[in-house]
Amino acid sequence: MIPLLEQWEWEKVNQITCEIGQSRDITGMRRDFLTLLGQLVAFDLADFYLNDTATLGRVRLVDPVVVSRFSKQFNEKFMAEYDKCYGQIDYVKWVFSSHESIVYRESDLINNEMRTKSAFFLDYLKPAGFLHVAGISIAKEGSCISAITLYRTEKRGDFTDKELYILNQLLPHLQSKLSREFNVIDYNIEKIRKGFSLLAYQYHLSNREIEILKLVCSGHNNSEVGNQLSISVNTVKKHMSNIFDKLGVDSRTHLFNLLLRNNKELFE
Asked: Regarding beta strands 61-68 and 45-51, do their DSSP bridges make them parallel or antiparallel, or are they unpaired?
């Protein structure tokens, strides 16, 4: 049975879809989306990740936008713990490897007894006060390009069928917007790969740094780069640190964004 939305709820859905379509700033769009969504689907914390632009075909979620009722310090600690420790044991992480976009509610995906006995729940979610989780995994051409997760405390209760219906109404608009964004990213990364000699000149990159940058732009992680060049992972990390310092960035996503934003003349 399809849940019935009230007039104001449809108006809010329309407002959100307009915001998605009209926004030119992908970071601002994600923040505005979560802020407006909170007026329809209540949450205590929500995050909106992108998949690493250099690793399409594999899932490496980066560059989160977070909206919550908690302090910035709490948000940063919660997100950092997931990235460093608990992401590997997330019992619904398989959702992000789905070939299709999906709206999900954790209670529909895993038996509650198993969930509440898992290390992910006991060591990560419960200490933060989050007992209920729902989300959206957004795919393009069979690969995850973005993920949204909504967290609730026990007081709010689990996400309802009506709220999942609202998320499903918004999903096609998110998928369309982010697919277009990633089409541009794919095209521009290919242009970046053709401009390495000019990059070396402009940013004073060494031959080894250019070799590593080429592999990074092809989607290789540090271990794979090391294997390709017969150097250790620590050496790769040192070179990447030097590259980041020279370009003034702190992540691979920011690296690509900087190259595209400030160096368009290199790729004409």
From this structure: antiparallel
The alpha-helical segments, DSSP class H, found in the chain are: 7-22, 26-37, 72-81, 106-109, 112-117, 119-120, 126-128, 161-193, 196-203, 207-217, 222-229, 233-247, 252-262
The two tokens of residue 165 are: 């219906």
268/266 Cα distance (integer angstroms)? 6
Task: Output the six-digit token pair for 71.
Answer: 């302090």
In order along its 268 residues, the chain shows pLDDT tens digits of 777 899 999 999 999 999 998 888 888 899 999 999 999 999 999 999 988 755 545 677 878 899 999 998 999 999 989 888 898 899 988 898 888 999 999 999 999 899 999 999 999 999 999 999 999 999 887 788 899 999 999 999 999 999 999 999 999 999 998 887 765 455 445 555 555 666 777 788 888 998 888 787 766 778 888 888 889 989 999 999 999 898 888 877 777 766 665 555 444 4
Please give the model's pTM, rounded to 2 decimal places. 0.70
